[in-house]
């Protein structure tokens, strides 16, 4: 089986590629042309991976990548993801997230029409929803950032292509994932790194409710989807079901790290590129019953265990 992974050098893409290698896939990875790209996440599997240079934002480049990989299945995880930066500069998000997905869909239809596509969307596509209850896949999308709009457009395009062009696509909408090393721009990792260093922490939206998923469970969702023919044409939420406020998870981490420093609730770090507060959905928790029932996915790492693993990994590094 030939697998093509876009975003192979990313947080989840690198882990998906490692699992594919372990399971005997012939893995190809699309990497953007760059003299400064970081391949450290896939260093252990480099001898088993075929890297293809290209750019999702250019159709002919994407077409060449699909032609070279001859994939039976494509995992589309390549995206521009920092939500807060999209407010000031939305244009690269349109090119990479929406146009990149459009290019990939049509490259698959032209060069590998029998290939499966598993496309990464995001919980951010739901945006503002009425009521504080877990969101189901049939909810109307109300994306609340330029980033989320581009992901929602890509999400809908894959669904349209399933019906109109007979693409064999599946859309996954994962909630916030954590477990990164060396990256301090994400909420959990930011808090862990600051607390271990004894630095002051800022929690800009302490009352916002989110659901945090450990990386291993995120990757498991992609692998289960790949094995299921029932998943073709479907959309699935991927979320462990452990809603918690930003304030509560901050206090958990402070206790687990024995942090004695100051926590500024309601304030962002100096110079932080803020996500406009009025635009931030207060409650973003997903209903995972569909993927649990149809594919047998379930979280295997609880929040406390996942946080403990993340803390230990940062200590070790």
Feature tags:
UDP-galactose 4-epimerase, domain 1, globular, alpha/beta, Rossmann fold, 7-stranded parallel sheet, single chain, 2 domains
Task: Give the topology, please.
Layout (H helix, E strand, L loop, with lengths): L1 E5 L4 H12 L3 E7 L16 E6 L4 H11 L3 E4 L14 H21 L4 E5 L25 H19 L3 E7 L1 E3 L8 H11 L3 E3 L5 E2 L1 E3 H13 L7 E4 L5 E2 H12 L5 E3 L17 E2 L4 H7 L7 H14 L1
Parallel strand pairs: 1-2, 1-4, 2-3, 4-5, 5-6, 6-11, 7-10, 8-13, 9-14
Antiparallel strand pairs: 9-12
Helix pairs in contact: 1-6, 2-3, 3-4, 5-7, 5-9, 7-9
Would you kindly provide a brief summary of this structure?
Helix content is 38%, strand content 18%. It is an alpha/beta fold.
Inertia-based shape? globular
Unreliable residue stretches: none
CATH class of the largest domain: Alpha Beta
* β-strand amount: 15-25%
Alpha-carbon distance between the termini?
35 Å
CATH fold group of the largest domain: Rossmann fold
Overall domain count? 2
Query: Which structural class do the helices and strands define?
Result: alpha/beta
Give a description of the structure.
The protein is of the alpha/beta class. It has nine helices and 14 strands. It has two domains: 224 residues, Rossmann fold, CATH 3.40.50.720; 72 residues, UDP-galactose 4-epimerase, domain 1. The strands form four sheets. The protein has a seven-stranded parallel beta sheet, with helices on both faces. A three-stranded mixed beta sheet has the order 12-9-14. Helix 1 links the parallel strand 1 and strand 2.
């Amino acid at each position: 089986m030939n697998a093509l992974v876009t975003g192979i050098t990313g947080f989840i893409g690198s882990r998906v590629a490692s699992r594919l290698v372990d399971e005997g896939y012939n893995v190809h990875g699309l990497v953007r042309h760059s003299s400064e790209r970081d391949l450290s996440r896939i260093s252990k599997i480099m001898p088993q991976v075929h890297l293809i240079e290209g750019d999702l934002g250019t159709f002919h480049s994407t077409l060449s990548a699909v032609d070279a990989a001859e994939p039976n299945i494509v995992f589309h995880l390549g995206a521009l993801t920092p939500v807060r930066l999209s407010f000031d500069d939305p244009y690269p998000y349109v090119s990479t997230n929406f146009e990149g997905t459009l290019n990939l869909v049509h490259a698959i239809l032209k060069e590998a029409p029998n290939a499966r596509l598993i496309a990464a969307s995001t919980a951010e596509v739901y945006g503002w929803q009425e009521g504080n209850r877990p969101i189901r896949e049939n909810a109307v999308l109300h994306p609340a950032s330029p980033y989320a709009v581009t992901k929602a457009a890509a999400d809908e395009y894959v669904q349209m292509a399933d019906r109109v062009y007979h693409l064999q696509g599946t859309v996954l909408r994962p909630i916030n994932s954590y477990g990164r090393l060396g990256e301090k721009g994400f909420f959990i990792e930011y808090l862990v790194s600051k607390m271990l260093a004894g630095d002051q922490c800022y929690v800009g939206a302490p009352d916002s409710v989110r659901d945090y998923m450990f990386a291993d469970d995120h990757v498991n969702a992609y692998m289960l989807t790949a094995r299921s023919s029932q998943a073709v044409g479907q959309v699935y939420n991927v979320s462990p079901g452990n809603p918690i406020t930003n304030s509560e998870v901050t206090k958990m981490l402070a206790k687990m790290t024995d942090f004695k420093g100051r926590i500024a609730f309601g304030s962002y770090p100096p110079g932080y590129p803020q996500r406009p507060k009025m635009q931030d959905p207060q409650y973003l928790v997903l209903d995972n019953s569909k993927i649990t029932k149809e594919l047998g996915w379930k979280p295997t790492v609880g929040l406390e265990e996942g946080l403990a693993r993340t803390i230990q990994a940062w200590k070790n590094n």
